[in-house]
Amino acid sequence: MDSPKNNTKHTYFSNTEIAFKNKDNGDLKHSLWLFRLMQNPLLVKVFSKLTLIAIKLHLPISVAVKATIYKQFCSGETLDESQKVVKHLGKSGVGSILDYSVEGKDSIEDFEHTKSEVIKIIHIAKGNPAIPYTSLKLTGIARHALLEKINPIAIGTKQELNAVEQKEQKELYERMEQICKESFACHVPIYFDAEESWIQDAIDMLAEEMMRKYNREDAIILTTLQMYRWDRMDYLKKLISEARKEKFFIGIKLVRGAYMEKENKRALEQGYKSPIQLDKQSTDIDFDKAVDTCLENIDIIKLCAGTHNEASTTHLLDQMKKLGIRNNHPNVYFSQLYGMSDNITYNLADMGYNVTKYLPYGPVKSTLPYLMRRAEENTAIAGQVSRELKMILEEKERRKFAKMLTGTNS
Ligand SMILES: Cc1cc2nc3c(=O)[nH]c(=O)nc-3n(C[C@H](O)[C@H](O)[C@H](O)COP(=O)(O)OP(=O)(O)OC[C@H]3O[C@@H](n4cnc5c(N)ncnc54)[C@H](O)[C@@H]3O)c2cc1C
Fold first, then answer.
1. Is the pTM here over 0.85, yes or no?
2. What is the C-alpha separation between 349 and 385, in angstroms, rounded?
3. How far is CA 397 from CA 337, 350, 403, in A?
């Protein structure tokens, strides 16, 4: 197929029959209702506030949340419950990145529990093509404040840790080591997610350390680069140069970044230069540049493009073609969040590309911060909801028409 980049009518991702083949009419109706609700920013704000109050008052809201927004964006409360979704996606050639989505927990028991859960995922993923990777948020196994304290040390600025913090740091290393060692032994690659810039140097340092140790023969440990930061292209080039010199493989998940408002607000309040690019276009340009750089170094890089942006995904497809990289090259993956941009995911799978859904699971209450981010993101991103809505409406029309022609729901 020729590049559809400049053709607004037809893109690689506009086939709604393929996009929604896993959704029956009831599922489609539910998504339509939810995305319509999320189009209203005021409603999303009120929902977020009321939910937080209801949790504080211990009101039984889990059932209502589970039947609505949770159902759209999460796969289940437990690993077992999520297997149904994993199988469902697997049937269409879509892999699952299971993410134990528990945020804002700060006790040793919570960190140990998250570690055990990630190790369980690694064991389930071993030799299972339906789960080609897994992921790790370092704030799931260590305190955010501890990572913030380690951050300046990571870039060589002196910062003392007290005895308690030193013990905590040692425990963080032990948890991380156990997870990475298991990933290596089971040959299940693991992404380190990217988080706020004021803990990201610490995350980069730890991810690099693990890549140097475990990526001698293949990329098992993968890091994440947020291209809404103006310094990430330089970081990518530095990492590639070091990997070539020291002979280790690297894993890169490219994303635009999820914490923009928070980053700009903090920079303004504390009077330092924001790490965020000047505008959206600069982020888009760097995302595509990073794609090009990764493809040029595909002999040592395992790339995952974590995006819902059709132009960037089209750019990656075109560049692969140009460089003669086959659709299912083992070092190129595409990934979207569960519940979003099914048109990209399923059409890519249909064309034989490696594609995954990022699949959060966990108790309803613990996934609320994640769900609120999704609701706010779907309200905030210009065009996103209308794009999702437009696709769902198109598919409803197509099904209605097909039913009229054949008398069936094709
Ligand atoms: C599989 C997967 C894994 C992910 N993992 C992570 C992760 O580890 N860490 C993380 O932070 N995020 C992660 N994300 C979320 C991601 O960073 C984005 O928030 C989200 O995907 C939206 O970006 P986009 O490329 O899909 O689409 P788009 O709609 O094209 O881009 C929206 C994004 O552009 C950027 N942007 C918007 N306005 C501006 C502006 N004025 N100036 C500069 N930049 C701007 C912001 O990053 C915004 O989120 C992940 C997403 C996916 C799909």
1. yes
2. 22
3. 25, 22, 10
Task: Please tell me the residue having the least CA distance from ligand 1 atom 2.
Answer: 306
User: Which residue ranges make up each domain of the chain?
Assistant: 75-365
At 186-212, the pLDDT tens digits run 999 999 999 999 999 999 999 999 999
Interatomic CA distance for residues 319 and 337, integer angstroms: 23
On whether the CB atoms of residues 32 and 392 are closer than 8 A, the answer is: yes
CATH code of the region 75-365 = 3.20.20.220
Tokens of 208: 């690099």
Interatomic CA distance for residues 123 and 117, integer angstroms: 10
Tens of pLDDT, residue by residue over 35-66, are 888 887 787 778 778 877 877 777 777 888 88
Question: Of 177, 179, 173, 185, nearest to 116 (Cα)?
Answer: 179
pLDDT tens column, 281-322: 999 999 999 999 999 999 999 999 999 999 999 999 999 999
- Of all protein residues, whose CA lies closest to atom 33 belonging to ligand 1? 256
Is the CB of 345 within 6 Å of ligand 1?
A: no
